[in-house]
Structure formats: C-alpha cells, structure tokens
UniProtKB/TrEMBL annotation:
InterPro entries hit by this protein: P-loop_NTPase (IPR027417), Small_GTP-bd (IPR005225), T_Tr_GTP-bd_dom (IPR000795), TIF_IF2 (IPR015760), TIF_IF2_dom3 (IPR023115), TIF_IF2_dom3_sf (IPR036925), Transl_B-barrel_sf (IPR009000)
GO MF annotation, one: translation initiation factor activity
Protein name in UniProt: Tr-type G domain-containing protein
Assigned protein family: Belongs to the TRAFAC class translation factor GTPase superfamily. Classic translation factor GTPase family. IF-2 subfamily.
Region (Disordered) location: 242-272
Chain intervals with Low complexity compositional bias: 242-261
Protein source organism: Bombyx mori (Silk moth)
Residue stretches making up the Tr-type G domain: 85-329
C-alpha cells in the first residue's frame, strides 16, 4: 500500500504520515504520497505510533489466484487397442485355520504353514504359479485371524477374483462372512473352495446352500456355475486330509476370464482344494494393462526395514525409475521377485520387492511413477505443503474454540465484577495448581513390528480398548524395525513397555534396557501379545474389596453393664448361621437399614472372653462405639473384607 493509502485508512493527513515515517523507517528512504511501502513492519509501526490498532487483510479488489496443482496422479485408462493380457491375481481368503496356507503350499510345493508362529498366517504372502499352458497366476495369501482385517481388505481390493476357503467341519464362520462382505464391496467375483471334506461326520452336500444363504445370496446362485469333482487319493505328502480332487489351479483363471484360453486340469500335482463354485452374479473381469509408459501403480503389502514388497497393477517397472507414494519417495535400485531372485523389470500382476526407499511407506499406499527425481521431490514438497495447510486449518479451529471458551469465561467474570462494584474479585477458594498430578492408572506402550501391516493390525486392536475409566491405555510410539536406543529413551520418559512383534532386540539395546529397568516383551503370535497387554492392564486396575459374610446372629436382648462409673450396652445374641469371630467386622441391621458398622471390643460366652462363637451358641457382644444400641429382633452380621483383583472388560474381538 502507498503512503496515501495509509493516510486514508488512518483518517489522518499526509503530513502526519510523513512525520511518523521518520520514526518508523530508519533506512532514511525518501517517501512521496505515491510511494509503495513494501515492508509490513513499517506499516505496523506507523499504526502503533498513530495510536491505533492494526489488522492486516487482503485488498478487497485483489484477485485470488488458484494454486497450481503439482501433485502426481494415476494415468487415465489406456485405449482399447493398446491393452494386452496380464496374469490374473487370485486372493485366497477365509476364516482362521480353514487351511488357506496349506492349500497354497500344495500349489507351490512348499511348507510355509510349518514355519508360521502359532500355526496361523500373520502376513500377506504373494507368489506366482506357472500353468502348463505357459501362463502365470499370482496368488495372495491373506491372514484369517480376526486381528488382520485391514490386510484382508487390501487383498480383496487388489485382486481379480477371491477364492473363499471354507472348512467343511466348521462351515461359514465370522471371518468367512467378513471376507464375503469385503469381496462384494470391492466388486470382485467369489470362488468358494470346500476344504477338509474327508473328516468323519462332515456333510458336504448341504454346505454350499448354507454358505450361499449366509452370504446373502439365494441358494440357487451357486448351482449354475458349480464344477462337480470326484475325490481320489491324494499323492501330495503335505495334504493332511488324505483325499483330494483333481488339481483346480486353472479354475480361478477361467472364472475370472483372465487367461487367453481354458487350461485343462493339471494332474501332475494334487492340491487339497475340494470343490469350487461361485457365489452371486457370474461377473467376469478382463485383466488387461496398458502397453504404454504410463504411471506405475502398486499396492504395498509388506514393509520391511529396507525393501518393500509390491503388487504391480499397471505397466512394468524397471530399475532406476522413481516415484512418490502417499509418504516417502524412492528410486528403484533393486528389484527382486517373490522367490528372491534379482530381476531387471517387473511386469504387471507381478509381486516384487523394491529397494531404494528413503523412508518407510505404509501398507496400502498408492505408488506412482514420475519422469525424474526432481519431479518426485516437487510432488513431495507440494504434498507436504498441503498437509501443512490442513494442519493449520485444524489448528486454527482448535484455537478459535479455545479463544471462544476463554472469552465466555472472561465475560462472566467481568459481569460478576460489575455486579459487585469491584475492580478486582477476591479469589474463590484455594488456588489451583498450574500442573495437576496425574494419578489415574495408565499403561503406556511402544509397538515395534517386522512389517507395517502387523503394526497396523496391532494398532487397530489397541484402538478397540474401551476401559479407560479404570486404566488408561496410551500408545506413545510405534514403528517398523528392531528396538533402538531411541525407543528406550521414549520408554524411560513415559515409563512405557516395549512390545516387539517378530523383531529382535539387539544385545546392546537389551543390556541398556535391563540397566534402565525397561521391560521389552518379544512376541511372534499376535493373540499372545494381546493377552500380555490385557494382563498388564489387569495388574494396574485398583484392587477392590468385597464383604464376605462368615456368620449371622439374632439379638435376643440388650443389657446395660457397669464399666467403672458408667453403663455401657451389651447385645445378647444367638449365632444362627456360620460363626462369629472377635477380630472380624460387624454390622447391625434393623429391618432394611444398617444402623452400625464397626468392630468388637469384647465377646463373652458364660462370662468368659472367647475368640469365636459357634452356631446355636449364645454370647454377649460389646461394640467399639458405646452409642451403638440394639433392639430385640435386630440382625448382627459378622464379615471380613476380601481383596478382589478385577479383570478388564476389554474384548478385542477374538
């Protein structure tokens, strides 16, 4: 704004502004009425010296320019003539312990299930299977445990078809229905496989109809596409069932229309997939990808300390390519296949391990390819600026709410001062401490995991905690990788327990943790980690006391006995239940009201002091309060206080 603009706003003459400029601007610059004042501090000083308050706002006639969007976005779909076939992606889902990993072990001739902690899958696994026709199929193995909901959801949203494994002995379970719901939300067809049909007493005939009804489809929905199969002896040494159908590996390809031609059944390797059928509409998907060099999109499944395992959805990726994700950026330096071999490029639908990330991206992040590392840095700066704007917006809302609350308190205090005719109010009561000591029981935890998906699953479980009124559960830090000295510093500051899931604690860090008296709990099964957290919460719940009645007596008559120069009351009673103990606690109950609670100072039977009174014996009871009076018909309860260690009501869902 110019000098004349300042004078107009202040409603002063131009000479006044020139005089003030001699004090506000020390640079010695010569001003005219049309000189533009570029320094905002000079304008502030002019306003202050003039005795006014200032507020800088934009000019009403100023044009707001839209900020250029510098973000990287996925490429639009390619033209029909530019598409080419790609291998299908098949996601195997189902309830825990229904045999998903065992079936996949039969397909790839491995024994992954034997190496899994606790006998359950806790990570998403991806591998390729070659078909006799020369084609390939990418399989995703998802965890069936209730704790890994996010992993299953990512699997359902990044696949062409879902193979739903249902154990014949269990039928449709909770995670089975959840898998069906996720597949329907992702709009992918479902292929159902009945497993464990050789168990005694299993009824396979009615299971398809029951499964369809539980899934929300009519029982006839699966009949049109069901492929009948006859069982024969299984030569596969890994098949625990002992019987199997002919190998059904090509079936998912035909169901999803992802292979160029139907492939005949492969009899060279038997699997333990028993029956296949589809649920719901026979929706078919063409699995094509663009042949051009458009942006590469990937879904992140596993997050290790250095590499990242991705499932490619669009064009192939080669070494030296770079691209941002929702968080960090990377330049592809090393590509490895699912088997661990180094490769130069990765085609679509190929599970690969990518090395070269500066930071750890989160599972489920979308990754885009850009032209250069300079462009990737520009995208990351733009995204960081957008996140900062969102944070500033949320912070401003919080600040405005606090200012409004402060203004309300100030106006209320001001009205009280005016009503009392005082310039200063006297303090009401004692002064409050500026920092209040927190004495509420709390459990502070730090979570470290081997992969981002496992950490995410643990955090999702901790988010379900709802017993904060008794014990507060606070997550102070989490991350991927081994336990580090920085974790120990945080744990020492917050008195936290470190939970290491499937990661090691280096010997030097373990020694430091022992010296600092910091507990590092290592677990490799998620439900055991949750049980450990529940035990720590239970140990912090304050102990409560409950009354344990050990005897009951009826009052027959009240006696007044001499004790020195005064008379004191004594209750003549008969024990009608249990026994009475002199060192216990007592209550006098009259009707429905308790008129006394306290102890005894004397218990006599036939004028002799005794420690206990048995059932059907009469006695005289003198209470420690001389004002405690009894009446015939009153009930005297003898009880003890017993400490009870309560348990947490938290139900994590499994």
């Amino acid at each position: 704004m110019t000098v004349q603009d300042v004078a107009d706003v202040l409603k002063k003459d131009i000479d006044h502004v020139f005089k003030v400029l001699n004090f506000a601007d020390k640079t010695g610059m010569t001003y005219t009425k049309d000189t533009v004042i570029h320094n905002p501090q000079v304008v502030r000083d002019i306003v202050k010296i003039s005795g006014c308050r200032f507020k800088l706002v934009a000019r009403p006639d100023a044009e707001m320019k839209d900020e250029e969007n510098k973000d990287a976005v996925p490429a639009p779909p390619a033209a029909e003539e530019a598409l080419r076939p790609r291998p299908p992606v098949v996601c195997v889902m189902g309830h825990v312990d229904h045999g998903k990993t065992t079936l996949l072990d039969a397909l790839r001739d491995t024994a992954v299930v034997e190496t899994e902690f606790g006998g359950i899958t806790q990570h998403i696994g991806a591998f390729e299977v070659k078909l006799p026709s020369g084609g390939k199929v990418t399989f995703l193995d998802t965890p069936g445990h209730a704790a890994f909901t996010s992993m299953r959801s990512r699997g359902a949203h990044s696949t062409d078809i879902v193979v739903l494994v249902v154990a014949a002995d269990d039928g449709v379970m909770e995670q089975t229905l959840e898998s069906i719901r996720m597949a329907r939300e992702a709009n992918v067809p479902i292929l159902v496989a009945i497993n464990k049909i050789d168990k005694p007493g299993v009824n396979v005939v009615g299971l398809p109809g029951r499964s369809a009804c539980c899934a929300g489809w009519p029982s006839t929905a699966w009949c049109a596409s069901r492929r009948a199969a006859r069982c024969r002896p299984c030569p596969c040494r890994r098949c625990a069932a002992g019987t199997s159908t002919r190998c059904s590996r090509p079936s998912p390809c035909r169901r999803s229309s992802c292979s160029s031609a139907p492939t005949p059944p492969d009899r060279s390797r038997a699997s333990s997939l028993k029956h296949w059928w589809t649920l719901g509409p026979a929706s078919r998907r063409r699995c094509w990808c663009g042949a051009g060099r458009c942006g590469a999109a990937a879904r992140w499944w596993r997050a290790r300390a250095g590499p990242r395992c991705a499932l490619l959805h669009s064009p192939l990726v080669r070494k030296a390519q770079g691209g941002p994700s929702a968080g960090p950026q990377s330049q592809v330096r090393i590509l490895r296949s699912a088997e661990g071999a180094s490769i130069e490029e990765a085609p679509p639908s190929c599970p690969v391990v990518v090395l070269g990330w500066r930071e750890l991206p989160a599972a489920g992040d979308l990754v885009l390819e850009v032209a250069s590392e300079k462009r990737a840095a520009e995208v990351m700066r733009w995204r960081a600026a957008q996140r900062m704007k969102e944070k500033q917006q949320s912070d401003s809302e919080v600040i405005e709410a606090k200012m409004s609350e402060h203004q309300q308190r100030y106006r209320a205090m001001l009205s009280r001062k005016r009503a009392m005719g005082r310039y200063k109010l006297k303090p009401e009561g004692p002064r409050e401490k500026m920092i209040k000591e927190d004495t509420h029981p709390a459990l502070n935890v730090i979570v470290k995991g081997d992969v981002d998906g496992s950490v995410e699953a643990i955090l999702d479980i901790l988010d379900t905690y709802d017993d904060h009124e008794r014990v507060r559960l606070d997550l102070v830090h989490f991350g991927v990788g081994q336990v580090t000295p920085n974790d120990l510093e945080i744990a020492e500051a917050f008195n936290a327990i470190i939970y290491a899931f499937n990661v090691e604690c280096p010997p030097a860090v373990a020694a430091d943790a022992k010296d600092l008296n910091i507990s590092v709990r290592k677990h490799n099964v998620i439900y055991r980690l949750v049980d450990d957290v529940k035990q720590e919460i239970t140990a912090r719940i304050p102990v409560t006391q409950t009354e344990e009645v050990i005897g009951e007596a009826n009052v027959l008559q009240e006696f007044m006995v001499s004790e020195g120069r005064r008379k004191v009351p004594v209750a003549g009673c008969r024990c009608v239940r249990g026994s009475l103990a002199k060192n216990a606690l007592y209550k006098i109950i009259r009707g429905q009201e308790t008129v006394f609670e306290g102890k005894l100072v004397s218990m006599k039977h036939l004028k002799e002091e005794v420690p206990t009174i048995k059932r059907d014996q009469e006695c005289g009871l003198k209470f420690d309060d001389p004002e405690a009076r009894v009446q015939p018909g009153d009930t005297v309860l003898c009880y003890r206080l017993r400490d009870v260690a309560p348990r947490t009501d938290w139900d994590p869902g499994f």
